[in-house]
Amino acid sequence: MRRAFALILVLIVFAGLVGGLGWFQFIFKPQMIKGIISKMPQPVQTISVVEAKAEKWAPSVPAIGTLRAVAGVDIAPQVGGVIVAMNFDRGQDVQKGALLIQLDDSVEQADLRSNLATQKNADVSLDRQKGLIVGGNTAKATLDQAQATRDAAAAAVERSKALIAQKALTAPFSGRIGLRKGDIGQYVAPGTSVANLQQLDPIYADFPVPEQNLGVMKVGAELSLTVDAYPGRVFKGVIRAIDARVSSDTRNVLIRGETPNPDKILLPGMFANVSVSAGQVREVVTVPRTGVTFSLYGDTIFVVKPEAPEAGAAQAASAPGDQIMTVERRVVKVGDTREDRVAILEGLKAGETIASEGQLKLQSGMRVRVDNSTALPAPPSPRPKQ
Q: What is the secondary structure of 4-66 as a DSSP string?
C-alpha cells in the first residue's frame, strides 16, 4: 500500500515538473521574448525621398501601334517574261506612271504588227463593201461579214497592245522603291514580286485602344508618337479613321492615325508609342515611378513626415540628413504615366514628401533617416543603334 502511494506521489511530482517545464517553454518564454522585443527601439531605416510636384498635363490615352504605308504594293508582272530593263535604283523615289521594269515583248510586238496589217486590210475591204452596197452591187450579208472581219482584226490589235502593256511595269502611285528581287535577264513567273513600292508621306499609325476609351476617340483629334529608332523625337499627327467594330476577342477598337513624314524616315512596320490627346490641360500631382508600389490590392506610397513637428523645422534647416522621420503608408489612385513620372489623382498633395527608394523595407509608422546620396543615378542616355 505504501509502495503504491509512493509511486502515485512520484508520478504526480513528475507530471508537475513536465507541465511546468512545458508552460515555461511554450507560454512564458515566448511571451517574455515578445515583451523584450516589443520594448526594443525600432531600427531606423535609411531611404531617399522626393517632393511631389504639381505639373500641367493634358489627358492622354497611351497605346502601342504599328506604322503602315498609305499605299504599298509589290511590283509583280501579270504575265511571265524575261527582264530586259530595270529603270530604278534601290531606295529611289519614283513618280506615278514611271516605267520601272520592262519584260521582253518582242513576240507581242511582232504579233501587233501582224494584227495591224490584218486590220488595215479589213478596213479596205469594209470600205469597198460600203461603196458597193450603195450602188446595189453586193449583198447586205457580204457587208456584215466585212464588218465582222474588221472588228475581229481591231480586237486582235487591242489584245496585242494589252499584252505589251502588261510587260511594262509602271508605278501605280508616287513613292519609294525598296530592294530589287530580280536582275536583268532573269525570267519571272506571273505574280512574282520583283520590288516593292511604298508611299511614305504621309504615313499611317494603326493602334488598338480599349473600348472604354472609345468615347474620347474623335476623328481629327491630335496624337503624338515616338519610335525607338529616333529617341527624343516626337512626331505629331491626327486621327483619320476609327474602325466600325470592337474586337470580340480583345475588346479593343482599332484606330488609324496619320502623321506627316516629309523626311521619309518613318517606315512601314515600325512599332510606335502613341499618345492621343483626350482633353484640356489640367494640373496634376506627379511623383517618380519608383515612389509608387503597385499591387493587386491597391497602389500605395509612403509619405515621410517629421517625428517631432515642433522641433522638426529647426533640425531640417540645420542638418536635414540627420533628422529622424516617420513614414505613413497611403493608398493612392494612379493616373497617366509619362516617361519616369506618374500622376497621382487621389491620396497625395503637391509639396508632400514621399519615399522614392527603399519602400520594400518600410512599414507604416516606421522611423527613417533621409539620405538622398544613396539614390539611384539617372539612367544613361540610350546608345545609338548601328
A: HHHHHHHHHHHHHHHHHHHHIIIIIHHHHHHHHHHHSPPPPEEEEEEE-EEEEE--EEEEEEE
Range of the domain at 255: 61-69+199-277
Q: Is the pLDDT of residue 8 over 70?
A: yes
* CA distance linking residue 313 with residue 246, whole number of Å: 57
Extended beta strands in 114-194, E state: 168-170, 175-177, 187-188
Give Cα separations from 318 to 202, 322, 370, 379 (angstroms): 59, 9, 14, 31
Tally of domains within the chain: 3
Helix (H, G, I), strand (E, B) or coil at 177: strand
- The pLDDT, as a whole number, for residue 203 is 93
Neighbours of 170 (CB within 10 A): 16
The length of the chain, given as a count of residues: 386
pLDDT greater at residue 342 or residue 312 = 342
**Bridge partners, residue 83, by sequence:** 103
Contact present, 71 and 77 (Cβ < 8 Å): no
Of 146, 166, 186, the domain-final residue: 166
> Residue 60 — pLDDT band, cuts 50, 70, 90?
confident
Q: What CATH number is attached to the domain comprising 254?
A: 2.40.30.170
All three cell numbers of 70? 498609305
For 204-260, give the DSSP string: EEEEEEEGGGGGG--TT-EEEEE-TTSTT--EEEEEEEEEEEE-TTT-EEEEEEEE-
Dump pLDDT digits (tens) for 268-298: 999 999 988 877 778 888 998 888 888 888 8
284 and 345 Cβ atoms separated by less than 8 Å? yes
